[in-house]
Amino acid sequence: MFKGIAASPGIAVGKALVLKKENIIIERKKVDDLENEKNRFQEAVKVSRTQIERIKEKAGEEQKNIMDAHIMILEDPELLSNVEDKIQSENINVEAALDDVLNLFIAMFESMDNEYMKERAADIKDVGQRLLMNLLGKEIPNLSVLKDEVVLVAHDITPSDTAQMDREKVLGFITDIGGRTSHSAIMARSMEIPAVLGLKNITEQVKTGDYVAFDGDEGVVFVNPEDSVVKSYLERKEKELAVKRELMRLVDSQSVSLDERRVEIGCNIGNPQDATKAHENGAEGIGLYRTEFLYMDRTTLPSEDEQYQAYKAVLEIMGGRPVVIRTLDIGGDKELPYMNLPKEANPFLGYRAIRICLDRKDIFKTQLRALLRASVYGNLKIMYPMISCVEEIRSANRILEEVRQELDRENIAYASDFEVGIMIEIPSAAVISDLLADEVDFFSIGTNDLIQYTTAVDRMNEKISHLYNPFNPAVLRLIKTVIDSGHAAGIWVGMCGEVAGDKRLIPILLGMGLDEFSMSAGSILPARKQIQNLSYEKMKALADQVLKMKSAEEIEKFVAQNV
Ligand code: PEP
Ligand code: MG
User: Fold this and answer.
1) Which residue among the candidates 70, 155, 183, 267 is catalytic per the annotation?
2) Ligand 1 atom closest to Cα of 385?
3) Collapsed DSSP state (helix, strand, coil) of residue 345
4) Which ligand 1 atom lies nearest to the CA of residue 449?
5) Using one digit for the tens of pLDDT, what is the confidence trace for 130-179?
C-alpha cells in the first residue's frame, strides 16, 4: 500500500498505464552556424504550435483555455528573443540556450507568493518540454487515442496531458510529484477524475498492466492487491456512482427545508466556463464571479470589450438567474505583475481591491462600463469587495453614477434596475453592518477574509492554520450580526466564503437565517440535499444555543451531535 496526497476525490480501479517521461539530456556546445540554430528554434516553435492546435481541436472548454495559454507562451516575445539573444551572444546550440531561458522563467514564476502564478510555471515547463522534445526529434506521448480504460501512472501530469486526456478512458491518475494545489490536482478535480499525487516514486513501483486500486479521498493506493481489496473498492465505487446519480435528481429542485424555508444555492466561479459547470450542477445563480482571473496570467489590463464579452457570456449561460459579479479584488495574495505594485509588508492589509479601484478610477470605470453594457443580457448584481466603511460605498457608487451618465450620453443601453451590494469580509464592516445596509441592496459574507481579519490569522500561513477556525464564536457572532442587520433593513444576505459550502456549518447558517449560500460547483447538490433534510425551526433553536457557547470546539461537537 502506498500513501500519497488525496488530490481529487473518487475511487479508481483498473489496469495501469505507466507514462515514462524521457529524461532529456541537454548537450551544451559551441556552434559556428548561429543562423542554423535560430532556424531550428523557429521550426520547433512551428511544430509545437501545430501539435498544440491539434490537441485543442479535441479538447473541452477548460482544456482549450490551457492550450491557448500554451500558444501564448510559444508566442511570448520575451521568451523568443531571450533564446535567440543567448544563441547569438554565447555562440551556443539552441537546446542549451532554450534550457537556460526556460529555467529562468520557471524560477521566476515559482518564486511568486501567489498559488495561481506559481501554477503558470507548470505551463512553461510543459511547453518547454515539448519544444525540447521536438528539437531532439523525440516522440511525445498521445493520450487522446487510448484503446482501453486505464489508470495513468506518471512522474507528473502536465497541463497538455490533461488537455488531451480522454475522460472516458482515464479512470484516474497517480503521480510521483504534486500536491493539493498543483496544476494536476486542480485539473483532476475540475474534470472529476480521481487522483492521488505526491507518491514519490510510484512510477518505479508500478509496471504497465499492473492492477491498481485507489481512493482519491484518502490518498491510499494499492498495486496488484488481493481480490478482496479489489472487490471492496469496486463496491465502494458502485455506491459512489449511485450517490451521484441520486444527487443528480436534485438538479432542478429547490433548496428548501423540511418546513418550507427556501434559500438559494449559488456557485462561485472564476471564468465563463465555470458558469456552464455551475449550471450543470443545479446552481440557482452565481453568488460570486471572481473577476480578477480575467486580469491575471497576461501582460496588460483586459480591455472593456474583452470584459464585456466575459460578463455577457456568464449572464447568458445563467439565463435570467441572478449573477453576482464582484469588481476587481486584486492585491493580497493575488498579484498583477504588470501593474508594478510595490511590495508591501502587510499585503492583506494594504493597497488592494476597492482601495485600488477608488484610486485607479480608470481601471474601475473600464470594468463598470463593461458590467453595465453586459447587464442587458441577464440578472446582474454588482458587488464591491473589501468594503470597510460607508465612505467607500459612496465613493464607488459615485463612480458608478458617472459611468451611467457616460453611457446615457453615448446612448448605450444598460439595465436600469440591477442591484449593487458589498462583501462583508472586514470586521469593521460587520460591526457597522446596520449602517452599511442602508446604502446597498445586498450583503455577501466573505468568510475567507472575515475569519483571518477577525482572529488575526493569516489565511495562507500553514503554521497557524489550526487557529483559522470558522467555528470561532467571534466569527459566528459577527455572521449573525450581519444577517440580522441586513434583514432589519430589508435586504438579502448571502455568503460566498468557503464556509457557505461546509456541511458542518450549513445547519447553523440556515438557522441564523442566511438567504443565499454560494459555493463551488461540486458542493451544490450535496448542500441542497442536506438543506432539504433539515428543519429551519430546529436549526434556528440550534443556532441560538451555539451563539451562547464559549469555544469553537464546544460548538463543533454540539452541532455534530445535534443535527
Ligand atoms: C472571501 O474572502 O471569503 C471571499 C469569498 O473572497 P476571496 O476568497 O476571493 O478573498
Ligand atoms: Mg475576500
Assistant:
1) 183
2) 6
3) coil
4) 2
5) 999 999 988 877 787 788 999 999 998 887 888 788 888 999 999 999 87
CB 132 within 8 A of CB 99: yes
CA distance 236 to 219: 15
Q: Is the pLDDT of residue 181 over 80?
A: no
Q: What is the pLDDT of residues 332-349, one digit of tens each?
A: 777 788 888 888 999 899
Cα of 24 to ligand 1 centre, how many Å?
A: 42
Is 70 annotated as catalytic? Answer: no
**Cβ atoms of 446 and 493 closer than 8 Å:** no
Instruction: Tell me which of 1.10.274.10, 2.60.290.11, 1.20.1290.10, 3.40.50.12780 is the CATH number of domain 22-135.
Output: 1.10.274.10
For ligand 1, mutation pick of 294, 425, 445, 460 (most atoms within 8 Å of CB): 425
Q: Class of 1-18+151-157+177-233 per CATH?
A: alpha beta
CA-CA distances (angstroms) from residue 372 to 189, 337, 409, 414?
33, 27, 14, 5
* pLDDT digit string, tens, across residues 373-385: 999 999 999 999 9
- Ligand 1 site, residue 495, Cβ cutoff 6 A: no
Secondary structure class of 478 (helix, strand, coil): helix
C-alpha grid cell for residue 158? 502536465
What fold characterizes domain 253-562?
TIM Barrel (3.20.20)
Ligand nearest to the CA of 500: 1
Could you report the per-residue pLDDT of 386-417, keeping only the tens digit for each?
999 999 999 999 999 999 999 999 999 999 99
pTM of the model: 0.76
141: its cell numbers: 506521448
Active site residue 496: yes
So where are the chain's domains? 1-18+151-157+177-233, 22-135, 253-562
The residue contributing the CA closest to ligand 1 atom 9 is: 290
Identify the residue whose C-alpha is closest to ligand 1 atom 1.
Answer: 446
